[in-house]
Design a protein that fits this description.
Elements: E1 27-28, H1 34-43, H2 49-60, H3 74-83, E2 84-85, E3 90-96, E4 102-107, E5 113-121, E6 124-128, E7 132-134, H4 143-146, E8 149-152, H5 155-168, E9 181-184, H6 194-205, E10 217-221, H7 225-234, E11 238-242, H8 248-254, H9 263-277, E12 282-288, H10 296-306, E13 311-317, H11 331-343, E14 347-350, H12 377-385, H13 395-398
Parallel strand pairs: 1-2, 6-9, 9-10, 10-11, 11-12, 12-13, 13-14
Antiparallel strand pairs: 3-4, 4-5, 5-6, 7-8
Helix pairs in contact: 1-2, 5-6, 7-9, 10-11
This protein binds S-adenosyl-L-homocysteine.
């Protein structure tokens, strides 16, 4: 049974999603996708077109101040001021790299911080956003994993990153967009925070929201298989999967969630997603680790897994961080690996590393995680393997309450 998110809401309290419903707190409108915003307006006794007006102010004009929303009735504005808010994360600091990449450290309150990165390119502007403070997945080569996991970001904090970046980048209402692509490749495992990531992505795609093309919103996952099936029912975005190894023995070490959902199961879920959503292809991410996963034999094994399927491989040169034992593969090894994949019938490209001098590249985002519950999936999985009924306890680490299974 797939548990469905409730979208028909009947009263104001129900219109407040869990993530924004601190006791007696105002509803943060930023996190509400259109259906929930309409329900919120209806619960206050207003027609649903008010929600569309609100979205226009919020996302088309970048205005979060009810007083300035002059086409809303004065009474409605007063009610909004009382019942609602537009709350954004705070910017703690900003850094700019030599190549123009910009990274912001954002505060999510209570000492927690997370990062977002803007990567300008001649033909597009990509914003890389975070979905969690820290991460529980414990991938061996990722610096976010070293932080442990603290908490999920709310839908408002996820959407708020795009809102803030637009503001900081000088977006002007009606002008050409600056952020053309959004990738959920910052801190965290987006599918472990499904309940907040889904509404946030709905707002990214909504033509009254950020109005991004579905091919330009990319969700990257380390391979939470049940949630990929759930995603296939819920939303059409570009899917990227962190494979990083062509066989289970190696992937178990690099990406511990593989011990729960091995490669064959993961790839089946990917093909299902593409079928179900009429997608073009899944992006298979593969970090290039010197002497670990970068041999021609491994390239051929990877090609055999993927040839004939709707997949393209994106090779990511490893980005080092303090204390890591891994090294980046040589340029020669990366080129040979790519050529071997192409010979094996698989489309493959190499991701250009951006923002390295400010630690803004893939896997280098660390934010600031204090008071963390150090949940490290690798060690949990190892411990669980020695117990009967192995692995069940890990669910709480990778997605509290996200128990959709097939
Ligand atoms: N949790 C999501 C998003 C992670 S970041 C996921 O696992 O897909 C996006 C990509 O960067 C992932 O493929 C991730 O495995 C990769 N990555 C992590 N650490 C890296 C590093 N140090 N160097 C290069 N890529 C890295």
């Amino acid at each position: 049974m797939i548990r469905r998110r409730r979208t028909i809401l009947t009263d104001a309290a129900a219109a407040i999603p869990e993530s924004t419903a601190a006791h007696g707190a105002r509803v943060n409108l930023l996190g509400l996708p259109r259906a929930e915003l309409e329900a919120f307006c209806a619960a206050l006794g207003h027609r649903t077109y008010r929600a569309r007006q609100l979205m226009h102010w919020l996302y088309k004009r970048g205005c979060g101040d009810f007083a300035q929303m002059t086409d809303l009735a004065r009474g409605f504005r007063a009610e909004l001021a009382e019942r609602a808010e537009v709350a954004l994360p705070h910017i703690l600091s900003e850094q700019q790299a030599a190549d123009g990449t910009r990274k912001w450290l954002l505060s999510g309150g209570s000492g927690q911080a997370f990062e977002m990165v803007y990567i300008p390119e001649p033909d597009r502007g990509t914003l890389c956003i975070s979905s969690q403070v820290g991460c529980a997945l414990d991938c061996a080569f990722c610096s976010t994993a070293q932080q442990g996991f603290n908490r999920n970001l709310s839908a408002a904090e996820i959407v708020g990153q795009v809102w803030l970046a637009n503001r900081e980048l000088g977006f002007v209402a009606g002008a050409e967009r600056i952020i053309s692509n959004v990738v959920l490749m910052g801190m965290g495992e987006p599918l472990a925070n499904y309940r907040n990531v889904l509404p946030a992505m709905r707002i990214l795609l909504d033509d009254l929201g950020f109005d991004l093309s579905r091919r330009r919103v990319t969700l990257s996952t380390s391979g939470l298989v049940p949630q990929i099936y759930r995603l296939a029912e819920d939303i059409n975005v570009a899917l990227a999967v962190s494979l990083h190894a062509p066989d289970d023995a190696l992937r178990n070490e690099l990406v511990p969630i593989n011990r729960r959902h091995p490669i064959a199961e993961l790839l089946d879920a990917c093909w299902h997603y593409i079928d179900e959503q009429n997608g073009r292809s899944v992006t298979i991410e593969y970090v290039m680790l010197d002497g670990v996963n970068d041999s021609p034999v491994q390239a051929r094994a990877l090609a055999r897994l993927l040839a004939g399927h709707p997949a393209k491989v994106n090779l990511i040169p490893f980005n080092p961080f303090p204390g890591t034992g891994f090294r980046r593969s040589s340029e020669q090894a990366i080129r040979s690996f790519r050529d071997e994949l192409i010979r094996g019938g698989v489309i493959a490209t190499v991701r250009r590393t951006r923002g390295e001098d400010i630690d803004a590249a893939c896997g280098q985002l660390v934010g600031r995680v204090s008071d963390r519950t150090v949940v490290r999936l690798g060690s949990k999985m190892a411990a669980a393997q020695h117990r009967p009924g192995a692995g069940r306890g890990v669910a709480s680490a990778v997605g509290p309450g996200e128990g959709a299974h097939r």
